[in-house]
């Protein structure tokens, strides 16, 4: 009995030593370079390059406090947080079993995302392929470029697969900011409603902080500066919900009259605009009838918006922008009211004959 215990102890020690030398010392059947996937010090990363077999390529690089694409377009911070966290957390679970070796190699060759990671100084520190989902559905098979040994990698505690975090649709990487201005940097704000011109207005702010308010339709320029300042504060960070990769829809909308045009000009004279259009109802639209049972033809929760100098088509939410679609009367009172000009316009149309606002 005693000899059996000694023998078992020796076997366990040898197994531990074998595991240690193979996985940590790089002196076994594969070296340390074969296992170079994760990056613990993500602050040292300066550039990331991704490519897949469909021809999609994404290259992002640190710039100041954020990240930009190779064309200078800012990157969504949420996407970068996910990517960097993935680099930090993913771990090798095990090398691929011999019985699956050939199949996994073929699968990686036929379906992979190439990942290259560089330091802030431009030195490449990682280059590998993210292959198919592992058999247990909780990780991916991966292979270092130049290596012959694939591994199964996963993120501890994450019930999913690593490749899901590497979105190869470049449109989903783009920063979704529509407006981002401090109130003291807004020199001029123009809000125009082509369908409801009586509700259009302009707010100008001088360098000394004084406001000038212009009602487009009357000579009345009443203005409560506290409400005006509160309104301008809403432009600190306004994001779209998502971008649409739909050239046909983009061209169609660009040929029509928007229902609202918001233009912000900063103290340096730079302007940024959002052209807003009604969006037809769909089966997902929450409200399709008025309280009186009249059919509503356009979505009251979401709008189309053409932004970024007319380059991008986006969806914006009424929950975010609705408080900005107001008229001049909002600024006349001691306490502002928030009637939504666009919602009122849609509701009025539903009371009479159906009006096709997309014509």
Give your account of this protein's structure.
This protein has helices spanning 2-25, 77-89, 101-110, 225-233, 247-254, 318-321, 341-351; strands spanning 45-52, 57-63, 66-69, 91-95, 113-119, 124-133, 140-144, 151-154, 177-179, 186-192, 201-205, 211-215, 238-239, 242-244, 260-266, 271-280, 298-307, 312-317. With 359 residues, it is of the alpha+beta class. The chain has two domains: 31-172, no CATH class; 177-351. The protein has an eight-stranded antiparallel sheet, with helices on both faces. The chain has an eight-stranded antiparallel sheet with strand order 12-11-10-15-16-17-18-14. A two-stranded antiparallel sheet has the order 9-13. It is elongated.
Short account of what is shown:
It is built from 7 helices and 18 strands. It has 359 residues and is an alpha+beta fold.
Number of domains: 2
Helix content: 10-25%
Series of secondary-structure elements, N-terminal to C-terminal: HEEEHEHEEEEEEEEHEEHEEEEHH
Largest sheet: 8 strands, antiparallel
Report the average pLDDT across residues. 84
Structural class: alpha+beta
Q: If helices are DSSP runs of H or I spanning 4 or more residues, what is the number of helices?
A: 7
| Strand line-up across the major sheet | 3-2-1-5-6-7-8-4
Tell me how many strands there are: 18
Query: First CA to last CA: what distance?
Result: 91 Å
Uncertain ranges: 13-31, 352-359
How much of the polypeptide forms β-strand, as a percent range? 25-35%
* Radius of gyration computed on alpha carbons: 29 Å
């Amino acid at each position: 009995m005693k000899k059996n215990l000694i023998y078992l102890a020796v076997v366990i020690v040898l197994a531990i030593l074998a595991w240690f030398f193979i996985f940590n010392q790089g002196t076994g059947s594969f070296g340390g370079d074969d296992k170079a996937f994760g990056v613990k010090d993500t602050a040292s990363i300066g550039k990331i390059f991704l490519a897949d077999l469909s021809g999609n390529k994404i290259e992002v690089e640190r710039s100041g406090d954020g990240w930009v694409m190779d064309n200078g377009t800012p990157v969504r911070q949420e996407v970068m947080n996910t990517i960097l966290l993935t680099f930090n957390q993913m771990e090798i679970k095990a090398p691929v079993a011999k019985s699956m070796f050939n199949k996994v190699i073929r699968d990686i060759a036929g379906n992979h995302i190439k990942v290259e990671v560089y330091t802030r100084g431009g030195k490449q520190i990682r280059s590998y392929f993210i292959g198919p989902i592992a058999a247990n559905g909780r990780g991916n098979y991966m292979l270092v470029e130049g290596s012959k040994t694939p591994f199964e990698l996963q993120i501890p505690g994450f019930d999913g697969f690593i490749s899901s975090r590497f979105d190869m649709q470049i449109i989903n990487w783009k920063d979704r900011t529509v407006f981002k201005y401090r109130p003291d940097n807004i020199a001029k704000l123009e809000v125009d409603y082509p369908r409801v011109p009586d509700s259009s207005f302009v707010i100008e702010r001088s360098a000394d902080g004084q406001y000038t308010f212009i009602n487009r339709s009357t000579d009345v320029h009443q203005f409560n500066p506290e409400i005006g300042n509160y309104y301008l504060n809403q432009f600190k960070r306004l994001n779209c919900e998502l971008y649409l990769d739909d050239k046909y829809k983009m061209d169609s909308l660009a040929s029509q009259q928007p229902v609202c045009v918001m233009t912000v000009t900063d103290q340096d004279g730079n302007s940024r605009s959002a052209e807003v259009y009604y969006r037809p109802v769909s089966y997902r639209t929450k409200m399709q009838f008025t309280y009186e049972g009249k059919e509503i033809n356009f979505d009251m929760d979401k709008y189309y918006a053409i932004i970024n100098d007319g380059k991008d088509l986006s969806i914006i939410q009424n929950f975010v922008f609705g408080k900005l679609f107001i008229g001049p009367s909002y600024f006349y009172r001691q306490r502002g009211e928030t009637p939504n000009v666009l919602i009122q316009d849609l509701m009025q149309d539903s009371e009479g004959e159906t009006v096709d606002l997309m014509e």
